[in-house]
Design brief:
Length: 170
């Protein structure tokens, strides 16, 4: 199941040039709404009457944050659907959060959705960056722009994929 969503992300990157997380959510049958009414980044709710899943993201947050939040909630839908049904709502950094290991799991899958391994490798190859080259801030900014991710999320994902990112002062 995880693989399917990552395959979809890879496919979007190849065909449309960008990974539209709202597209991914919609294709899973999840509706996505922006709101100013929440104090935290995002949440996913299950409506028992309609059977629909709904992601709400905080439109006061940065675009990169919103993308990560939506991917994070999609990850909950894939990994922790039974808990969303049980609780009715699962949100980030609020009382409805799951355990920290479940939150980490969702963050990990979110990073894979936003920066799939094969897409990152292809981009790095295209820029002639191998894993033994120290990556400078300029390159990190380039990767972040390409995948529409924050600098910090980009650094974490690059390191996870075995790239050499040295000390960077943000
Ligand atoms: Zn969460």
């Amino acid at each position: 199941m995880d693989n399917k969503v990552i395959e979809q992300a890879i496919n979007l990157k190849k065909t449309k040039g960008r990974i539209d997380v709202i597209d991914i959510a919609n294709s899973l049958g999840i509706k996505v709404y922006s709101t100013k009414k929440i104090q935290y980044p995002s949440m996913i709710a299950h409506n028992k009457e309609t059977g629909y899943y709904e992601i709400y993201f905080n439109e006061n947050e940065k675009k990169t944050r919103n993308r990560f939040s939506i991917a994070h909630e999609i990850a909950h839908y894939i990994l922790h659907k039974s808990k969303i049904i049980e609780f009715g709502v699962v949100g980030r950094e609020n009382l409805c959060s799951l355990s920290s290991s479940e939150e980490l799991e969702a963050d990990k899958l979110a990073a894979e959705i936003l920066m799939p391994c094969s897409c990152v490798n292809e981009f790095m190859e295209h820029n002639e960056i191998t894993r033994d080259v120290k990556i400078e801030l300029d390159m990190i900014k380039k990767v972040a722009k390409e995948f529409e991710t924050s600098l910090l999320a980009t650094i974490m994902r690059l390191r996870e994929l075995g790239y050499y990112v040295g000390y960077i002062e943000l």
